[in-house]
Design goal:
The protein is mainly alpha-helical. Helix content is 54%, strand content 0%. Helix 2 crosses helix 3.
Length: 92
């Protein structure tokens, strides 16, 4: 495949139970309120959070465990996943 032609994006549909969605929405609301209060939204990776933005941010950090494993994002995500029982580090 020609490397100059980008792969099309992959579409995911995510369904979560309503109680979890409420907690996620509250976490997003809290994070955005603090950013706005401190006027620091332009210092964040992606600005104010949304549900989609949060999912994209987490998936990018998971991808970093494979694409840039020495970065802080990969290190933090690898540690979080390992605490859940998933070792995503490369097997040698």
């Amino acid at each position: 495949m020609d490397s100059t032609i980008p792969d099309p994006p992959v579409t995911l549909t995510v369904s979560i139970p309503a109680p979890i969605a409420r907690h996620v929405d509250q976490a997003i609301k809290n994070a955005n309120a603090r950013l706005t209060q401190r006027r620091t939204e332009h210092f964040c990776t992606d600005g104010l959070l949304t549900r989609l933005g949060l999912i994209e941010l987490l998936l990018r950090d998971v991808a970093e465990t494979q694409g840039r494993p020495d970065g802080w994002e990969a290190d933090s995500m690898s540690d979080l996943l390992l605490k859940h029982g998933y070792d995503v580090t490369e097997m040698i």
